[in-house]
Write a structure and sequence with these properties.
This protein has 189 residues and is of the alpha+beta class. It has seven helices and six strands; from the N terminus they run H-E-H-E-E-E-H-E-H-H-H-H-E. The chain has a six-stranded antiparallel β-sheet. Helix 4 packs across helix 6.
Length: 189
């Protein structure tokens, strides 16, 4: 099977690719109806989140998606083929240490292949739509929605991106507002 063509003509990805570092956050705002529904429920600009990591000279996005679960994709393909905008949020300040980057890389890689949590998506949707509570149990079995995966990777590595929310309730918008991430750079849109 031939991979889909990658068109970066409407993207600034090439311009910024070399500046994106391990553990940086990518926030996506899609045009699909489900993306709009997620933005509406979470009252945010974004509907999806992922993490950037370098594998040798290849920049990858690690993300949780319905169907494949936690997966890795070449960033060029993930950005070019996404129907919507993509913003890059770099980890800034004293938290970007070699030790932290090693920890978040280990956590993110160890979760590859974990399933997507449709149940958590429903729970989060009910929470934001109806005000129901979020589960408080300690998770022993890992399955994720996108922003929950990003939040989990950061918190397991020792930095809580959204300290006022449990990982399960973290939205892509919460990620974008983290005090530990720098100003957004639009890669596509």
């Amino acid at each position: 099977m031939t991979p889909a063509a990658v068109d970066l003509g409407t993207s600034r990805y090439k311009e910024y690719r070399g500046q994106i570092a391990d553990g940086d956050v990518l926030c996506f705002s899609g045009k699909h109806w489900l993306s709009g529904f997620i933005r509406h429920l979470s009252r945010g600009r974004y509907s999806h989140g992922g993490l950037a990591f370098w594998w040798d000279d290849r920049l990858m996005v690690l993300q949780a998606e319905a169907g494949p679960g936690v997966q890795s994709l070449p960033a060029s393909r993930a950005i070019a083929n996404y129907a919507g905008t993509v913003d890059w949020y770099p980890l800034v300040g004293e938290h970007r240490t070699d030790e932290f980057v090693t920890k978040i890389t280990e956590v993110a890689m160890s979760r590859l292949g974990d399933p997507y949590s449709t149940l958590d998506l429903i729970r989060i949707g009910l929470h934001y739509a109806l005000g129901t509570g979020l589960p408080r149990e300690t998770r022993t079995k890992h399955s994720f929605v996108c922003s929950q995966y990003v939040a989990h990777c950061y918190s397991a590595a020792g930095l809580d991106l959204a300290p006022k929310r449990p990982d399960i309730g973290t939205t892509p918008e919460d990620l974008s507002r983290s005090p530990y991430l720098g100003k957004a750079v639009r890669l596509k849109g």
